[in-house]
Amino acid sequence: MVQTEDTSTMEEGWREVFERSRLVPPPSHTVRLAAESHLAQSHGFQLSLSRLTAAQPPQSPEMPEVEEDLTYQLRVTLFDENHQHFFGKTWKSPTQKMKNGKISFNEVIYFHTSLRLPSTVVVLELVSLSPRPDSSQQALGRGFTVLELFTNRPEAQAADGNRRLNLHHGSPRILLHPQLQDTTDYRSLLKTIDGTHLDCVVKKHPALVSMMHLLPENVLVSGDENIPGLAASPTGDALLRPQLLKMLPFTLNRLTISLQPSLEKFESQLLQLINADCHNTKHPGPEGTQRAVVIQERRLHVGVHNGWCFLDKPQVVVLEPLASGARGRADSASKQSTLDSTAPSPPPQILGLRSNLELQMTNHPALAIVFQLEHVFSAPIGRETMLSATASSRAAFLQCLRWGIFFPFQKPADWRGEEIQLVLQGGAKSNPYGVMVYSTEMPAKTQSSVPLSAPGTAQVKDTLTFRLSSGLEKKASSPKASLRSRQEDVSHERRLPSSPSQGQKLIATASSPESPQGPRLSLSQLAATSRYPTISHSSSALPWQQSFPSLLHPSPLASAHQLSHVACSAVSNIAHLEMDLQREGDVLASAQSEGDQLEELPFAPFHAPVITLGMNVPGSSSVSSRSSLAHLYSAGFPEIVDHSGQVAEVLDPTEPVPFDPQHEETDLLQGNLLVFQFLAFTRIPTPGVGPDWPDNIHFTFQFYRFPPVTSQKLKLLNSDKVQHKPCDPLPCVLASINRDGTVNSGSPGLQVQFRVDDGFLRPGEKRWFLRYLALHTMHIDIWDSESLLLIGSTAIELKYMLRQGKSAVQALHEVEVLTTDYVGDDALLMSASVGQHSASSPMTIRTIIRGHLHIRTGNIGCPVDPTRRREADVMLSSSYIITPRQVTSGFRGGSLSSRNILQLNARNSAQAHRLEIDGDRVPLYRHRIRPDSVMPGELKLNEPDGGRRKLDCMAAVHQREAKEGVKAANVTEQTSEAHLARELLQMKLSEERNKSEGIASMLSQAITTQHLLYAGLGSAEYMEFVLKNPFNVPQTVTIHSDDPELSVITNTEEWRYFKALTQTPTPLEENMFHWEKGSPGPRVYLRPKESIHIPLKYQSFLCDHTMAPQGPSFLPTGKGSQMAKKNQSNIVAAKTIKVTFKADDGKPMAICQVNVEPTPHVVNQTYRLYHPELCFLKKAIRLPPWHDPTGVQDPDATTISVRCSDPNIICQTRMLVPGEPQDVYLKVPGSPSPHIKMFFVMVFTDKWMAAPSQIWQIFVHFLERVDVSCVTGQRTCQSLVLRGRQTVRKVKCFSSHPKEIQVDPEGVFVLPPSAVQELQLKVQLWRAGSRFLFVNAVDVDNQRLITAWLLCLNVHQPVLSKAFEVSVPVGGGRGSSKKITYTNPYTSSRTFLLRSDHPDLLQFKEDQFQVSGGQSYTIGLRFAPSQSPGSVKIHVYVNNLEEKTEETFVVNVNYS
User: Fold this and answer.
1) Which of 70, 572, 997, 1258 is deepest in the core (most CB within 10 A)?
2) Do 40 and 154 touch, CB atoms closer than 8 A?
3) What is the C-alpha separation between 767 and 664, in angstroms, rounded?
4) What is the band of 499 on the pLDDT scale with cuts at 50, 70, 90?
5) Maximum average pLDDT range among 431-435, 1057-1061, 1425-1429
6) Beta strands in 738-789 (DSSP E)
7) How far apart are CA 524 and CA 829, in angstroms?
8) How far is CA 275 from the centre of its chain?
9) CA 22 to CA 1259: how far, in whole Å?
10) Residue 80: alpha-carbon gap to chain centroid
11) Cβ contacts of residue 508 below 8 Å, gap of 6+?
């Protein structure tokens, strides 16, 4: 057991800080006024005091002063002018001397306050200090001034800027004079000291927000003040840019309190004193009322204090009386014995806490855990009250009995794993809770926090015993296991009998979003108000098990996401999570705790479903009827035939496909022509849209690493010849549309082809492509071509495109087109929390089937050149080794052109020779002299008189100019010759410079080795460069790469991993590289003539994110309907990277030039998210735990890491608890509407991130958010503003649910440049709850999106007028007819409209009727028959002509 024997010294140091930091609270009326003015949020400020200037030193007749011994000090205090009240804590500056009438303080003060009112000012006083004979100092005020922080408007911010404040005579105590109480301008009553002013600067300091929990409000401190929890700054000013120390989790358990002489006697004596006090202060009442005060509850406050304030609000827990043997957290045996009524129950001796308490602390010696024992007493209100102790006329009051303090980080910290015993204190002694503490008649010394005596002594004290453990030590435990144990504890505690003195208690379950807290608190807190808000605790599910709108859960049809393109197939399931990260608090920190609750935003982002392999199962895919199949085959779609003209073999997509990789690799037809035929689309009736929606559609998808495809507009053709039933709609054949809007008369459907052969595949890629077909699905988005709204998404399995030795195969797929909808719980219109409903109600995810897509896939085998057939199948290990070429021939002379590097041929020499001749003729062409007029000797370039020849050429130019009539004098001739000489000198210098550059370029190219590299996004490309030391002396070579994406592998484990991955049989050397300070790269030592292999790795996580404009593509002229537009792929940029190997003298020894050729990457999953514009999208995606199928649990092998292709997007993950699911966090910056941000997320499952296991393509659509609140059945109008761009556009607005949202103007209208067009939305919905709908403004000429709106609807239930019930027989097809009488409440005739939220189940005899004032009308109802029993509620709305609801009836229909 650890006893607090050494805390006295530490407590004295903490108490000194605590006493020094005590402050005077502000007036309560001012606090209320600030709260009413919505100024409850505290803001940080910085006050810089530069210097004080005085014309002459202020004199005082009271004190003769000696100038050389006199020092000055500034004292700063906050003051409330309205209440004439100083509050906070006075700050005192270091003493300074006056020099030449100036005092330089140069001090910076920081504080934060929420009292941003005009009455809050800062009072600054100048004080002179003179020494006394007893070595003390005498302080005398020399003047003061007042600094106004805020303007006269309560809502205004602080007025920043430089201030020059004049000093006034007297003391600041004059501000407390009664004459100044009602004075508006008291400064006119103060006398200014002439020529004396203080220069200062006041400004806001937002950086204090991060550390406000470490410092109380209204406290003035300097930057060098010691504030525990704040990291020290090397500049000495820790508050300029505050850096917080890391908070660590700790768990406090097995907490018990022992009161002396015993719990029963202590509380009995306490009750006697309280009842005696009540008896002495009140009139005596009937017998028995003197002891009417009872103990209702025993509480313990636990908080972490840094000497200034509590780091967080203290936690409040309820203690229970326990037997002396049941210490701490009772086990199941003790609980069982407690529940057993037959066992003898010993009297309670101690108070105990059965649950754990979780704290957040930082490792600082001045940090303390403060405990406060508090009892809740219940007493009668009236003098003659005869009610029982549990009656409602009793009042509860609180009393603090004991308190204690423990310093966990004192030295030595020997409490880890041990039981800690703490002495509790009482009596009149200041404490952090600021309350009076109960004291018995015992001497005060025995109640102080003195060290405990050694074991065995007779001294006994009130003690608190507990165990404290670090949360980091318990990381290996499972949160789910601890959660279950906590729930079991709560369930046991709920079965415990309540104490008679406690009364009946109810355990509330909730959780604080700030910190993880485990114990519970009863509801007796409602009877009395504590100083701090009481907190109730929860054992509810983990944060990711809350009812959040999980964006990445597609539907019950696809509950898991398959990771297939991985080196290890164990990753089979990915669960996704949508977390609300836009509330206060850090989700990364709160995710570590078990019971944290995250508050949900009013907005839940909406996205298309995530389609996975699990979709195409018999339960989710449908089979067309024979009439539908006959309709498809009669449309005349082109057949898929092999290279010999035979029809491809048809595969059944409902049957499994055997996959033999060896059979595929040995196929004679190594080429593959993959065909996708989009045949037809079957509409499904959807609420809110018409039966003919959609009319035109287009598709977007991406196959393998080909560029993304956006199809052209396709028309849905209805068949008028074939009769079909409404329950079995026929598929609509797709037909392409020409530019003029007419339907293409060619073959129906859309066909897209991809050729995959040895010319496309890289070496060794064939098996990866076959694996892609066998395990992957292709994501397809279906769009409405008119409104550019997403209809839905689907996916098709690619395994039916494996030929398995056949010449050609084909398969017909019918897949569901799905979308997801988020619907909140219903909200009553009369509810008091209507405004908060959307922020607190859980969201329900619904999967909606928008239709069925009929698509045919095929694979046609193609023959290839047998000499090149194996190049794409075999990856030789030597291809990873870069060996420099041996240069055996020397330089033959001639031109130093860059083309003559290793070998000069006649053609290159002649070409270079002509270029040099042309260079000499440049001066001739400037003067219009033909080359044939020059002497024949000009071509003799290597003769020694070549310089003279050039002078003769220039003289010839001069003579030609003279012949044209220009007579030059001798002086002119001398000037011309000097000018020609300067030109000749410049030409010689240029030739020498070019010659030097040419020689250096030639030498550089001679030692350069070229290497071609095909790189994909996120994939690491490994290579080894053979470096040889050509010298006879050792060399230390420095390796430098001019691009950080190409680096040297210096880690031996990483090198070994890549060698095994690429099967490179080259030697590996331990600790081959070393780093030196200031070196541009790693260095390696080479012996003379030695050759070594340098491991290099190229890996790029960045790529181009340009996207094609949203909308269908247009076919180029001359193309048929069998083609689709392929957009440019988002691939990494092509580049050339040089790796230079420099010797000791700094000259290059060898150069490896890597030419990076980009290749598209495979997209495994595609997500489309919708989010409000200009705000961050924060998302958490849950990954499952990784299990190695080999059974080897290597911690390094279980590392999951992520990277994002956009550096502006935060993407990170971390393992919180081993064995538990892992989260991937995304933070995407917002963009204006209708911008679409596209990026890729790469998931790696190996330690060295060799290749991504998954690549996710994520689209984030940013839209303008519009909040609408309405009532079901009633029309609500909302205005939108559409702004014009640079050009005139023809615009039409579309709604995602035209029957529920109508846009006015309805048709096409002209939007002039920079104009403003008002749009009127008419919203009328029939389902209560939260909904998310969309409105798009589209340029009809270019089919481009102009603006998009996201409508966040909060639909409330109406107030019901009457309720009816009717029974309808099941079967028979007859239904039932009923009548309802409606009376017109108005005195005049009115016309009413009848509406129903179930028009398919209820029809009216007349949808509109007119009735005179005060007259009645009979409404005829016709209920449709049902084939199955059940019940449904149907609302009947009686609306006026403006669609405002007059009355609402509800009819309960029972089908039996």
Assistant:
1) 1258
2) no
3) 9
4) very low
5) 1057-1061
6) 750-756, 777-784
7) 32
8) 58
9) 55
10) 42
11) 520, 521, 522, 523, 536
**DSSP strand pairing (419-423 vs 2-3):** parallel
| SS3 of residue 726 by DSSP | coil
Which residue type is seen at 335? K
Q: In this structure, what token pair is assigned to residue 861?
A: 């085998």
Listing DSSP states for 38-61 in one string gives T--S-EEEEEEEEEEE-SSPPP-T
Place of tokens 């996916």: 795
In the chain, the N- to C-terminal Cα span, in Å, equals 73
Helix ranges (DSSP H) in 179-327: 263-281
Distance of alpha carbon 311 from alpha carbon 227, whole angstroms: 11
Contacts of 1428 (CB under 8 A, 6+ apart): 1370, 1455
pLDDT at res. 723: 53
Question: What is the distance of C-alpha 1302 from the center of its chain?
Answer: 35
Say what the pLDDT of residue 673 is.
Answer: 94
pLDDT at 1100 over 90: yes
Sign of CA dihedral 492, 495, 497, 503: positive
The answer to whether 722 and 732 have CB atoms below 8 angstroms apart is: no
Average pLDDT, the chain: 75
* In the block, residue with structure tokens 């070595």: 135
* Alpha carbons 512 and 357: distance in angstroms, whole number: 13
d(Cα 1049, Cα 1059) in Å, to the nearest integer? 11
Confirm if 1246 and 1197 have CB atoms less than 8 A apart.
Answer: yes
- pLDDT at 560 exceeding the cut of 90: no
Nearest to 222 by CA among 237, 210, 234, 211: 237
- Maximum distance among all Cα pairs of the chain, rounded to whole angstroms: 145
Q: What mean pLDDT do residues 943-948 have?
A: 50
Residue 582 tokens read as: 């836009």
Amino acid at 649: E
Inter-residue contact 1299 to 690 (CB < 8 Å):
yes
Structure tokens at 410: 């004192």
CA distance 717 to 737: 11
Q: If you write DSSP's letter for every residue of 359-380 in order, what string do you get? A: EEE---TT-EEEEEEEEEEEEE
Those residues with Cβ within 8 angstroms of residue 93's Cβ, 6 or more apart along the chain or in another chain? 49, 73, 74, 75, 76, 105, 107
Residue 85 in contact with residue 110, Cβ under 8 Å?
no
Could you list the beta-strand ranges (E) of 368-504.
368-380, 394-406, 419-423, 463-470
DSSP-assigned beta bridge partners for residue 651: 811
Structure tokens at 691: 């039966």
Tokens of 1149: 């020894």
User: Rounded to an integer, what is the distance from CA 1355 to the centroid of its chain?
Assistant: 29
Distances in Å between the Cα of 145 and the Cα atoms of 104, 125, 165, 173, 324 are 17, 7, 7, 12, 63
More confident residue, 292 or 622: 292
- Half-sphere exposure of residue 919: CA atoms within 13 angstroms, side-chain side: 12
Going by C-beta distance under 8 Å and a sequence separation of 6 or more, which residues neighbour residue 770? 661, 664, 665, 802
